[in-house]
Amino acid sequence: MPLLRHLAILLALIIFTGCGPGIRFRPGEIPSPTATAPENLELGHQLYQEILSKKPILNDPQAEKRVSRILDKLLAVTPTTGHWTVTLIDDPAFNAMTAPGNYIYIYRGLLDHARSDDEIAAVLGHEIAHRLAQHELQTSEETLGEALATLATIAAGVAVASQQGSTQQDVANVMDATSALGAGFTSLRYQKDQEREADQIGMFLVADAGIDPTASADVWAGRIAAEGAGGSDFFSTHPLHEDRYAMAVALLPTAHARYEAALKSKQKTKRKPSRAPPSPALHYQISQAQEAIANNDIHTASTIAHSLTTQQPSSPEAHNLLGHVKALQGDIPQARKAFQKGLKLDPEDPVLHYNMGCVHALKGERTAALASLEKAFVRNPSLVDGAKDDKDLASLYDDPEFQEMLSRQYTVPAPANVGGNTFSIN
Fold first, then answer.
1. What is the per-residue pLDDT for 277?
2. Cα separation of 289 and 295, whole Å?
3. What is the distance between the alpha carbons of residues 37 and 354, in angstroms, rounded to a whole number?
4. Separation of alpha carbons 204 and 26, rounded Å
5. Which residue stretches of the chain have pLDDT < 50?
6. In sequence order, what DSSP letters do the residues of 93-119 get, joined into one string?
7. Alpha-carbon gap, residue 89 to 422, rounded angstroms
8. Nearest C-alpha neighbor of 188 from the set 196, 153, 230
9. What gap in Å lies between CA 335 and CA 322, rounded to an integer?
10. Are the beta carbons of 93 and 140 closer than 8 angstroms?
């Protein structure tokens, strides 16, 4: 690898370790990340290419099925968008890691030595938590200065090695050694806080997925048994195993309550019959109402909407139509009620969330409007284009947060060369 590129990627990795001290989230809080910045997406893609070129890929269909089964549960309760690219690495280390752009790397050693699928879920929940907490974004001027100082140390080591006529591999070894030493001194405190934060978030993510969170403590009990508890807390870039075990045990009562609630929720979901798809007759009547609206015949549209909500009160589409008609008639309170009824019937409908956002905006309820629009855009990014010139959202046009939402990337583009045992989970 060209030396300058090696330095650039290494600098980025060092910067990514920085964040403010302390755990920022309450126990049980699962953060919802904003869209990943384009430069961080690019870095994630570069790291993906680098790992594929440097690490052997594990080709094991059974391992892929096992990982997919576990991740399906975790990602079902993960508040993020886009697909996740999963790569299995043929390496005996008990390890997993993530990178910007929703990349997950899982080592063979984790699959071989974890004592249960629940323990694997606990490790992967921790890694996903790094992305949810957006640890790569928590940089500061001080952290950047520390990273530059570390880079200077690396450069000095490279210069010495080069003057001594060392090979390119020797230079790379010096870079690796000095970067590890530099990061240990300059970013140690922040790394530990990030790891503790990811432990906590990951534990509750596991519980919400209906996986026994006891596994989060069991992982560290297993690591203590396999590796011993010793080691210097100061020179470790991660918290000690016994400290992480103690934190997991302390959080277990609260996490178990979430786990029990998740199990009860799943049981109710299984018993609840699935909603039938809208009938062709319903689609036809809605299209008739939409045609009437296009022709400014609000009376006809209103007649159809009221008829549909009477005939099919369990149809969110009917309530959405009624809300649209009421909004056109200037009856915002009744429009709000109709959209709310629709969302009770289908909480995932992006159009209903969008329309609720418009109602909030018309009433000057900025925070509620942004929250509803965020839900709409995450579920259907194509709604962003229409929002840019929607007169119902005029009160938000000059709002920096609204404009930032409109410029986000709500989906992550797939890598160009997914190969080996790399696969995507939506």
1. 63
2. 10
3. 24
4. 11
5. 1-21, 139-190, 231-235, 270-273, 411-426
6. SS-EEEETTTEEEEEHHHHHH-SSHHH
7. 9
8. 196
9. 7
10. no
Q: In what helix (H) or strand (E) does residue 425 lie, and over which residues does it extend?
A: strand 422-425
Nearest alpha carbon to residue 102 among 131, 136, 123:
131
Instruction: Write down the pLDDT at residue 54.
Output: 83
Instruction: Identify the residue whose tokens are 């010096």.
Output: 174
Taking the alpha carbons of 391, 397, 401, 407 in that order, is the dihedral positive or negative?
Answer: positive
Query: Tokens at residue 405, please?
Result: 């939402």
CATH numbers and ranges of domains, the chain: 3-268 (no CATH), 280-406 (1.25.40.10)
Question: CA-CA distance, 337 to 355, in Å (whole number)?
Answer: 11
> In this structure, what DSSP letter does residue 136 have?
G
Tokens found for residue 99? 């990178």
Residue 251: how many other CB atoms lie within 10 Å? 20
Q: Which residues pair with 422 in a beta bridge?
A: 87
Distance of CA 38 to the CA centre of its chain: 15
Query: What is the CA angle 49-52-56, rounded to 5?
Result: 170
* C-alpha–C-alpha distance, residues 388 and 364, integer Å: 18
Give the separation between CA 59 and CA 54, rounded to whole angstroms: 16
| Residue carrying structure tokens 């309450």 | 26
- 14, two tokens: 């060092």
How far from 175 is each of 50, 58, 182, 258, CA to CA, in Å? 16, 28, 10, 45
- The whole-number pLDDT of residue 275 equals 54
Strand order across the 103-107 sheet: 96-99, 103-107, 84-89, 422-425
Task: Report the half-sphere exposure of 50 (CA within 13 A, side-chain side).
Answer: 16
Any idea what DSSP says for residue 137?
G
Cα(189)–Cα(206) distance, integer angstroms = 26
Task: Return phi, psi of residue 57, to 5°.
Answer: -90, 135
Helix, strand, coil percentages for the chain (3-state, nearest 5): 65, 5, 30
Burial of residue 299 (number of CB atoms within 10 Å: 0-12, 13-18, 19+): exposed
